[in-house]
Specification:
This protein is an alpha+beta fold. The chain contains 4 helices and 7 strands; from the N terminus they run E-H-H-E-E-E-H-E-H-E-E.
Length: 152
């Protein structure tokens, strides 16, 4: 059974393992540890049998905007709903903290991630050139956390 919970300091090695497996340019352990201290309830882990199999990390900007800093699931556990659980819980917490929308950046050629975010209700709102380095652009994707009928 998969459990989504707040990260604990002893989970950070497992988070880092998922990070290393998931990204070409992973965050250093020291940055993940710093986020552990500053994320205030927005650093989540997915665990099964005590093992970290995924994580999501967010921050709140300007008091109303949730930023999905990172989300990752172990390769052998992808496409099983764990990412959806992690992102949904993070969005729920953004709402509890009065955020109006959630946004993230994703490499513009990471089609599996873009498809996942689309399924979760995110839409591309702009492109940031060279965000990940020369010719490595990012899409900024956003999702309103509340229904705004006037904007449909």
């Amino acid at each position: 059974m998969v459990i989504i919970t707040d990260v604990r300091e002893e989970d950070l090695n497992g988070v880092y393992s998922v990070e290393l497996e998931s990204f070409d340019k992973p965050y250093p352990f020291s940055l993940l540890r710093a986020y552990y201290f500053i994320s205030k309830g927005l650093f989540l882990v997915a665990k099964e049998g005590g093992e970290v199999i995924g994580y999501s990390l967010g921050i709140i900007q300007f008091g109303y905007r949730g930023h999905v800093v990172s989300i990752a699931v172990k390769k052998d556990r992808r496409n099983s709903g764990i990412g959806s659980l992690l992102l949904s819980e993070l969005e729920h917490r953004f709402k509890r903290m009065n955020c109006l929308h959630s946004y993230l950046e994703v490499y513009f050629r990471n089609y599996p991630a873009i498809n996942f975010y689309n399924k979760m209700g995110y839409k591309v709102v702009k492109i940031v050139k060279n965000y990940y380095g020369k010719d490595r652009h990012a899409f900024v994707m956003m999702k309103y956390l509340y229904d705004f009928p006037a904007f449909e």
